[in-house]
Amino acid sequence: MEKNQNQIVAGTDRGATTINVHGLLTKSWYKYPHLRRLYGWLVVVLMVQATNGFDGSLMNGLQALTYWQKYFDYPTGAQLGIFNGTQGLGSVFSVTFLWWLVEKIGRRYTIMIGAVIIIFGVFLQSFATSLAMFASARAIIGMGLSFEYTAAPMLVTEVAHPAHRAQLSTLLNTLYNFGATIAAWVTLGTLTIQSDWSWRSVSLLQMFPSVISITLTWFVPESPRWLVAKGQIEKARKIIVDYHCGGDENDPLAAFEMHEIESTLAFERENSNGGWLALFKTKGNRWRVWVVCSCSFLTQATGTTLIGYYLVVVLTDIGIKNPRTQSIINGCLTMWNMGFAFWGAYVIDKFGRRKMMLYSLTGQLMFGFLPWTVSIAIAPQSNSEADNMQICNALYTQNGNAGAGHAVIAFIFIASAFYSTTWNGILTGYTVECMSYDVRSKLIVSQNFLVQASITGFNYLNPVALEKIKWKYYVVIDIIIVLAFVIVYFTYPETSKITLEEVSTIFDGKQAVKNALFEEEIVMEGISKGASGDKAVTVERKEVSEGT
Questions:
Q1: What is the tens place of the pLDDT at every residue in 53-75?
Q2: Would you tell me how many other CB atoms lie within 10 Å of the CB of residue 238?
Q3: At residue 265, does pLDDT exceed 90?
Q4: Residues 6 or more apart from 394 whose CB is under 8 A from it?
Q5: How does pLDDT run across 167-219, given as a tens digit for each residue?
Q6: pLDDT of residue 536
Q7: 491 phi and psi, to 5 degrees?
Q8: The dihedral sign for the CA sequence 37, 39, 40, 41
Q9: How far apart are CA 58 and CA 185, in angstroms?
Q10: Which residues pair with 529 in a beta bridge?
């Protein structure tokens, strides 16, 4: 066993009692057996988001399947919105109790209950015989998904080693694209099935990530923070020692993390009434609520629901009507998004959350939606409804200009790339970091409610807006992206390169984390002191009695 595997350096540009989490480890994570074991189990948790991605891409892919279209009588407009929008209704229902359940039974059991609900909903969806049955199944799946992506971000964020928290929490949502990619290409393969099983079979595949969750989540370590909150101090310490310190009881990180967790929870208990009013009781919590609520809406309002759920409609409007071609484009787009999402998760701690959000929005607007909007607006229009189609369709139908359609495809890929680099993972990375433990479950449930409400709203709005107001709808999206840039620039703080507890100091002030390990000079062996930018100096361990 390697002694003192974590090297703590006290003092960063955020304060003398904070630590630089990037300096904890001297080797890559895969060179530590305990981290390989930890992240191997966390893959099981990360996979829950693949279920959500599979679901989103599935609804895009089904629209390209002739037998699905025929079975449900070629849905369009508001009826198509019902197919896509009812998933969010299940999440709306679960918000009434999930915040309590995830704190009562823990993160792991909440994930497993969600997996059971999803499997039940998938069976109903796969064997649906009517619109009502299909829509009901979608709502049940939505409720199960809300269980999983309420608990999963909390578990990943709270269990991950401090040095890798940002990458892992961001990676959780990037696996949406992994599930979406599988669904897109499987749907392409089922085009050859000349029966209703072309869509029923691909629907059944949606349950497999949930089967994995039920089978393996038992072995994932529970959140040390939840265990401490429940008074199970020794269990929490053992998880930190085993998975963060390689079993070394004397590793300074064990004492440091446990002290931060216990002192922060104590501070939050003293300053919280435990109810929903706690979200608005302090300035710090009101700031958290603003960040979470605005981010939940903006992640869905900047065009992602249009591309994610109605790509087939967009492609049809620009003259690409062949189901096989539509499925190939959908598959390529999901792979493209997955590549940029993984890259974003890898570098987000290097560049910072806030900076990447701003660059992402700028790229989305300047190289994606703005030229897309301009190309639609300047297209020659006619009195014919067919020639008056949005998304460069006027150029295509009147002049046979296939290049106009190809330009739209390019703009879709560019906008999606910029979105995927950052915003794809923000909801499970950045916002969860901003939440203090005492309000985390309430804020995550609220976030999921707002996300699902936004998805539901935009899924109803998108097909109707594309049909009624055409290119003006893209102007609205452009304005929302500009608004998002302003909100991020002026109101979103940076949370990178510090521990989860120390993020609380940004919102609540330095009193949020009273780290006596430093303030009272009880410095463990292996801990170094250093100011921001200065060379760290190793100090001797000093035993200081209480009151000294």
A1: 888 788 778 888 888 888 888 88
A2: 17
A3: no
A4: 379, 380, 381, 382, 387, 388
A5: 888 888 888 888 888 888 888 888 888 899 999 998 999 888 899 999 999 99
A6: 37
A7: -130, -10
A8: positive
A9: 10
A10: 10, 537
Q: What is the pLDDT of residues 460-487, one digit of tens each?
A: 788 778 777 777 888 999 999 999 999 9
CB 443 within 8 A of CB 348: no
pTM of the model as a whole: 0.77
The Cα–Cα gap between 440 and 153 comes to: 10
Percent of the chain clearing pLDDT 70 (strictly above): 83
Strand-pairing partners, residue 9, are: 528
What's the CA gap between 532 and 14, in Å, rounded? Answer: 8
DSSP states of 124-142: HHHT--SHHHHHHHHHHHH
Q: Which token pair is 326?
A: 């539509």
Q: Kindly report the number of other CB atoms within 10 A of residue 40's CB atom.
A: 11
**Do residues 415 and 369 touch, judged by C-beta distance below 8 A?**
yes
Strand order across the beta sheet in which 8-12 lies: 15-19, 8-12, 527-529, 537-538
380 Cβ neighbours under 8 A, 6+ residues apart? 394, 395, 398, 399
Q: 10-22 burial, b if ≥16 CB within 10 A, otherwise e?
A: bbbebbebbbbbb
CA distance 434 to 354: 12
Q: Which residues of 241-274 are buried (b: 16+ CB within 10 A; e: fewer)?
A: bbbbbbebeebbbbbbbbbbbbbbbebbeebbee
Taking the C-alpha atoms of residue 31 and residue 337, their distance in angstroms, rounded to an integer, is 29
> Which among 226, 215, 291, 287 is positioned nearest to 261, based on CA atoms?
226
Contacts of 468 (CB under 8 A, 6+ apart): none
| Alpha carbons within 13 A on the beta-carbon side of 228 | 23
- Tell me whether strands 8-12 and 527-529 are parallel, antiparallel or unpaired: parallel
Report how far residue 529's alpha carbon sits from residue 516's, in angstroms, rounded to the nearest whole number: 14
Q: Which range has the top average pLDDT, 74-88, 493-507, 517-531?
A: 493-507
Tell me how far apart the 2 most distant CA atoms of the chain are, in Å. 86
Using a 10 angstrom Cβ sphere, with 0-12 exposed, 13-18 middle and 19 or more buried, the burial of residue 400 is exposed
What percent of the chain has pLDDT above 90? 34
Q: How confident is the prediction for the chain on average, in pLDDT?
A: 81
